[in-house]
Amino acid sequence: MPAMRGIAGAVIGHLVAAAGVAFAVASLAFVAVQMAPGDIAFRVAEARYGERISLQTVDQARQMTGLDQPVILQYGRWVGSVFTGQLGRSMISGREVTPEVWQSFQTTMSIAIIGVSVALVLSLMVGFAAGMRQDSIFDRGFLVVSAVLSSVPSFLLGIILITIFAIGMRWLPAAGNNLPGYAILPSCTLALALLPELSRVVRNAVVATMQDFYPTYGRIKGQSWLRIIFTHALRPTLVPVIAYFGPLVAHTIGGLVVIDVLFNLDGLGTRLIDSVLAADIPMAMGAGLLIGISVVAINGISDVTVRLLDPRLFVAGHQP
After folding, report:
1. What is the pLDDT of residues 195-253, one digit of tens each?
2. Is 152 left (phi over 0), alpha (psi -120 to 50) or beta?
3. Which residues form the ABC transmembrane type-1 domain (predicted)?
4. Which site from 23, 138, 141, 318 is most exposed, i.e. has the minimal number of CB atoms within 10 Å?
């Protein structure tokens, strides 16, 4: 029961944190637009009316978008709309923000789910192989390669993949999300960005686990490596891996912004940057809100999963 209360408390805590972080990110997007040089109303009118822009159309845009009101009232109106389940309308297109950012969210999540899944599976395979053969040639080679890969930024990994598979071999599309196979290169870029650190965590966890009593006893009894892994090593290894996995993936959400722009995807990263540059306050804050919620949700899922795998760690109030 103490463990279940700890899990319930963790869920509630993460829900509260999600609201706080989401509003913080959305507020930063609001401030970024407000601090941009130039008159926001002029930029909105220019986007809406093009060459027909005039002082009258600028004033109309200012009144229609509520930019004639004090900044604090603009922010308060947006906060109130969030609690009613609406994120307002785009200042540029006039369309509802909610379906627009939701479509971008789906694009980003499709890339994230594929990339994270590939990274997790490969890191478990490679990390277990290196950890079970500690100090072997394979293990040392793995440590060198992972150190090199971890020093390469995600945008450079993406450029390398585009150069090889899109420009050189012409197997895959280089950009956009309207062609078949569009998700492969962005997902592989994300997976390669996550793989080095995550596989090292798996390897170190396996090395520590294999020094415990039960795996050692299994080797003495002559059990196969496969049985030792699934019976004695897998679950203890997953606890530190998942504990590290959540914050790592949440941190990589920032990398998804770069991946969106690099591969010209209609994801949350592109949506956020374009809306800030266009001074589209509701769209920028809507995209920021979803990014904030995603970061905290990933951390929350990781935390709760660790508690379910080993509740004893949290009965005493300690985390791995």
Report:
1. 888 888 888 888 877 776 555 656 666 666 666 666 656 667 777 777 777 777 766 66
2. beta
3. 105-302
4. 318
- Candidates 270, 290, 249; CA nearest to 87 is 290
* Measured distance between the N- and C-terminal CA atoms of the chain, rounded to whole angstroms: 20
Instruction: Please check whether residue 25 is in contact with residue 254, taking contact to mean a CB–CB distance below 8 angstroms.
Output: no
Query: Does residue 189 lie in a domain region?
Result: yes
Domain contains 320? no
CATH number for the domain spanning 249: value is 1.10.3720.10
Q: Is the pTM of this model over 0.70?
A: yes
Distance CA 178, CA 141 (A): 39
178: closest CA among 263, 60, 74?
263
Tokens standing for residue 7: 């899990």
Domain limits at 166? 2-315
For residue 55, CA distances in Å to 24, 35, 39, 52, 61 come to 35, 22, 12, 10, 10
